[in-house]
Specification:
mainly alpha
Length: 79
């Protein structure tokens, strides 16, 4: 089971599974203080306007790494 902080982060970033969402809801409903903490965190999150992470394209990153390696090799060749 993931801790409530991880589940809240996943919820706020829309990366939570249905199973984890149910666990989070149970935790929130188990104690009014839990719900209060979550609402405070959610409010801070929304006020911070946390930017979404840019999408990661594995193929593009592979090409960049290969280009860096090739460029490093080219510059180290003695003429």
């Amino acid at each position: 089971m993931n801790g409530p902080w991880i589940l809240m982060q996943r919820f706020l970033t829309d990366q939570i599974s249905d199973e984890d969402k149910e666990i989070l809801e149970n935790w929130l409903n188990s104690d009014p203080e839990n719900y209060k903490k979550f609402e405070q965190i959610k409010e801070i999150w929304n006020l911070s306007e946390y930017p979404n992470e840019p999408e990661f394209n594995l193929e593009e990153e592979k090409v960049k790494i290969i280009q860096r390696i090739l460029n490093a090799d080219d510059s180290s060749v003695d003429n």
